[in-house]
Specification:
The strands form 2 sheets. This protein has a 10-stranded mixed β-sheet with strand order 1-2-3-4-7-8-9-10-11-12, with helices on both faces. The longest helix is centred in the middle third of the chain and has 16 residues. The two termini are about 30 Å apart. Helix content is about 35%, strand content about 15%. It is an alpha/beta fold. The structure holds S-adenosyl-L-homocysteine and iron/sulfur cluster. The site of S-adenosyl-L-homocysteine has 18 residues, from strand 8 and strand 10.
Length: about 400
Amino acid sequence: MARSRCIPSTAKRSSKGPYRRRVISEVKPAILSASATELEAWLSSRAVPAYRRKQVWGWLARGAASFDEMGDVPKPLRSELEREFRITSLRQVAVSEADRGLTTKTLYELDGGHSVESVVMRYSGRSTLCISSQAGCPIGCPFCATGKFPFGRNLKANEIVEQALDAVRVLGAEGRRLSHVVFMGMGEPMANYQAVVESVRRFSDPELLGISPRRIVVSTSGLIPRVTQLGEENLAVTLAISLHAARDELRDVLVPINRKYPVADLVAAAQGYADRTSRRVSYEWVLLAGVNDTERDAKELGRLLRGKLAHVNLIPFNPVEDTPYRAPERAAVRRFKELVEAQGLTVTVRDTRGRDADAACGQLHERVMRAGRAQGALQTSRTAVAAS
Ligand code: SAH
Ligand code: SF4
């Protein structure tokens, strides 16, 4: 896939160009839309032994960009796979880079025209992919770029996994391996539960990506019944709770799902997850200047989590246009961290990777949508453009 440094111009695209809306029924299914059993059945109906499925998955896991690359798969089978399936259902629309190339954010068009983004972050010794589980998000947190667009649709499990396969391809070309996956892109993973759980199983499947569940983070705004259900799946992924406020009155505003699932009940459900899986829960706290970074907030957070198997991640707000929020000063972040630590909690300040790559979830999507609207040409995510 071609990778460009900045958003490609939308002005030159014709209606026959690469972003022309496709009619789904004309499109071949993506290879990963078939389960292992379904693919083996398809192979068996052509008198091909089941182990070929493992070979094909092995190639996908190594980032193959075409069936033709699958050298140990017989040529006639490669041709038949090519006739019947697409290697991925995702089409790259835009890439932006930051941190001198250490962070790359990609916007993909999905079948049907919605778009989602994912971010690759390269560190020494590990590479993390931040993926999307929904096009848009139904929760509508007022500080979040994704929440500002109308909800599009749930992603299918294969669409979630394909984001990782594309990252594997990009990282592989740089001699890197994808080591961590975080569900912190667009969407609320627990509102697309089945597909997210299925994708986690595929990420951790040794026949596909073989990523340890400990290295997979599922972040949620707090759908309590799903948090409990996740604990019963025997997956032991790392759970992140987007807390942002410790009192209902404020959290009702910052994370509107709190009106249905109050914060004390959410923390109790997360502690249930920790008890069941022995996994420490991460609590995310986006720091918004003057809103949730006061001494009172730090004390309330301390009281709420004291004695829990918990870790606090502070995320300085990444500014989003048309929101009333501001990022706190560096000194305010340090002071808040110290106040929370003084309550006996462990705290990390998340590095603000990719600020100049429209880092916070939904921001590249937003920028491309704005550009598309200005130039009247981008045809992806029409609903978002029309309604925003
Ligand atoms: N919907 C899920 C996962 C995606 S959002 C959730 O909310 O947990 C991933 C994280 O990014 C959340 O903690 C969210 O609050 C945070 N986030 C959203 N917008 C942000 C912004 N502008 N600056 C910093 N963090 C942001
Ligand atoms: Fe949705 Fe998470 Fe953004 Fe809230 S922060 S709108 S839950 S993606």
